[in-house]
Design brief:
The chain has nine helices and no strands. The chain is an all-alpha fold.
Length: 179
């Protein structure tokens, strides 16, 4: 709640000063913070306003689209989340934002692991790409998360031994980076 209050105070100040660019970035930050504390419906308008403003950098837009997807999934709006992630992935690819790309790919791959999702070969390929891109970006946290998600995929497919090996790999990587 401290971060949320701080962002809201900063938004009020930026608005008073007429700094529209900073106001939009702060709206995105407020939306992300609300989503992180489980207030998904409240987060969505902040995230959409930031995205629709046309004032975010390409990187911030890609990140905010991924955050919007994360706010839509708990509301049962998976197809809208897929569309937001597809936009995030496209922006990240076009601009070479490897870390944002890895995070969006992992988020897309995990949509099919949710209850009611349909796991396909495309799911596996998306998670494998997330892992490879995260490694290339040296984003060890996203790499560990994508390895864990690949383990969940293998477990769901009845491949217990492969799942366990992936879980062990993710655990080892997490220990290495201290998460």
């Amino acid at each position: 709640d401290i971060a949320l209050r701080t962002y809201r105070d900063a938004l009020e100040l930026a608005t008073e000063l007429g700094d529209q660019d900073q106001s939009i970035v702060l709206r995105a930050n407020i939306g992300e913070t609300l989503a992180n504390i489980g207030r998904f419906m409240e987060a969505e308008p902040y995230l959409r306003e930031a995205i629709d403003s046309g004032r975010l950098s390409h990187l911030n837009q890609a990140i905010t689209l991924k955050e919007l997807a994360g706010a839509l999934v708990p509301q049962g709006r998976t197809e809208e989340a897929r569309a937001a992630l597809a936009r995030s992935i496209a922006l990240s690819r076009e601009n070479g934002f490897l870390q944002a790309l890895a995070m969006a790919l992992d988020a897309l791959g995990t949509l099919d692991l949710e209850p009611g999702g349909r796991i396909t070969e495309e799911t596996r390929a998306t998670l494998e790409e997330a892992r490879a891109v995260a490694r290339q970006a040296r984003d060890r946290a996203t790499e560990a998360r994508s390895i864990l998600d690949l383990g969940r995929l293998r477990l769901a497919g009845g491949e217990g031994r492969k799942a366990l090996a992936l879980f062990d790999e993710a655990l080892e990587l997490s220990r290495t980076i201290g998460t």
